[in-house]
Amino acid sequence: MTYKPTLLTVAIALAMAVPAQAQESQQNAKTLDNVIVTGTRVADRTVAESQSPIDIITPEVLEATGTTELATALSRAIPSLNFPRPAITDGTDAVRPAQLRGLSPDQTLVLVNGKRYHTTALVNLNGSQGRGSAPADLNSIPVAAIERVEVLRDGAAAQYGSDAIAGVINIVLKGSDSGGSVSLRGGKYSAGDGAQYQLSGDAGFKLGEIGGVHFAAQAGHQNQTDRAKPYQGVVEQRYGDPEVEQGAFSYNGELKPTDYLTFYSYGMASKRKILSNGYFRFAGDNRNRPEIYPDGFLPQIYNESEDQSWVGGLKTSTEGGLNIDLSANYGHNKLTFDVKNSLNNSLGVTSPTEFYAGALELSQYVLNADFNKQLDWGLAYPVTLAFGAEWRGEDYKESPGEVASYVNGGVPSANGALLPGAQVFAGFKPSDSGKYDRNSHSFYVDLEADLTDKFSAGLAGRYEKYSDFGDTSTGKLSLRYAFNDAVALRATASTGFRAPSLPQQFFQSIATNFIGGVPYEIGTFRTDNPAAIALGAEPLKAEKSTNYGLGLVLQPADGLYVTLDAYQIEIRDRVVLSENLTSVPVRNYLQANGFPGIGGGRYFTNAVDTTTRGVDLVSTYRWALAGSNLDLSAGYNRNKTEIDKVAANPPALAAIDPTAVRIGQAELSRIEEGSPKDKFYLGALWSPGDWTFSATTTRWGEFVVYNSPTTNPVQQTYAAQWTLDLAATYKLGNWSFTLGGDNVTDEYPDQSLAGMGTRTYLPYATNSPYGFNGAYLYGNIGFKW
Fold this sequence. Notes:
This protein is mainly beta. It has one domain (5-784): Maltoporin, Chain A, CATH 2.40.170.20. Helix content is 8%, strand content 47%. The chain has a 22-stranded antiparallel barrel. A five-stranded mixed sheet has the order 1-6-7-4-5. Residues 1-31 have low confidence and may be disordered.
């Protein structure tokens, strides 16, 4: 890339000293005239004129439910977004992934103010939706800081680079230099648990005559929920949402010393402390030490997730009309693991009951140089040319836990077995730890124009090269034709890619398991681990996609807007996590070929090809009544993913065990049927006088879970379910008072036929798209100025 070091240095220094507004606030985000900044580089493109399907989610929509989580609020407003609430899934309880269009969570790109947001250090290893993914954590972004959310439901890798296969979620931060708000929200589930509260606020300030800054902050707490059934007459297990304590802060603003030069910056920091549960160890369990826990024990995982992000840059323009945007971008996530109320059985009665189990960290560094210019090609309207370059560096670090969290102390359990490591989550070993990095650079070019009053088109191309797996090129063609003011047709075709994440390449966790009374080291191996290579692991390569979209835009009457978009997404070489490979032939081979003590394990592999087809229907209508307005909205998504191909076992593995199953039925079912096949919502917002009443009913479609207990695996289809959310707000001057309820009819998903494997006292599947906590009642007091 070509930068002017003096300008960049000055820009970053001033942006750090004087925070600035990176995006211009839109006062009426509900209208179709709202200018979008996602999926286009034309300065005045609106929602109604977009060549790709895009949703605008306003603060009013985010605040229209009792939730304090961004991902949960988005799942209520976007038909194709799925955000289940897994439990007893280790770190995934703390950092829960969201899916767009039924695809992997890391196949959706997250931006903040149009800049790439960092992903999490956690890789989801257990049986939740998104198993094997390491996506961005939407809930690390404070809701109090958000002006609006733009969701591009289309492939956009040619425009933004890796990860944008399913689409793009762009969070636009508040940036006004005046006004503000403060609110206190609290609630509890009708079952009597899960009480939570949140205090939040934001305010804008002028910086002399040449700039402004907007600050936002929030802090809150939620208690655990528990939906486990009594077992043997008592309730020992806890099964539900974790306990969470969270706080976040952000700033966003700009400094404009001249008409042709703007410095901008934003920054965010958040911290969440999460206490989640493992499986209860009963008093007579071989893993227990009755001398320490006479009545058994419930081991718990205590995570601290810390996120920081910062962007600073400058915008300027030349006399020839070339607009320049230079920026630097930093993001960091650290996730620590502590184990509480537990023990290391192999240390006997002297075992500690609390352990530090290690940490995962991921850092991202990005430099961007973006340019655009209006070109006169003799057409009816100017052509927008955009081009630029990006450099991105990433670091990933895995740090070991304290010795007691993983050591084999040599003291056998009651049946003579050795059970080393902290129960529920054995600490990372020094042999697991390490620090890894990579970098990439890319170049893009983008042309977009209104060729006539009715016809617009866009063409984008991108070349990207990574230091670890090579290069790739992607492209996108977008078209839109307006037959008249009421009817338009749009279409897109694009190729995309997703680079395998550093956690997928380098996370490793090896624990001692006993098979037939013999201890073996089994776990998740890095793809370059010699034992993994012996079992057929190969260097990961990028996922490749081909996306097609066809949409109809209707505005048949004043206030009525309807879009219908069909799509097909073909993905080749999807990165998935294999099954545990621990058969007798595998163990015998490893023992005889230089891997003493290694009994098998799992690794990431590009083993699956899929095709996803679906349709999105979104409609809004404003009905003007006498003295009030009634805003109606409806959305529907139907989505189906099919497995096109499962790669044959690699020759190395086939030679060891011809019967080995590298990708099992549970994972294939999770990809094809684990998320709802469809979702429908209908919402109404009525504002008579000082009152506002809202109601939203949602139908969550059926989904399938393939449980794998020791015997008789069970594949169960969970029926579709309706939920109803209600709220009423009264405004008194600058004050507002809200009472509401989510899922007021207290609906629960079907109960599992098999429980969680053999644990029949865990009645609900964690794949449920609306959780399994029942009705939630809440209140909110707010003040705006």
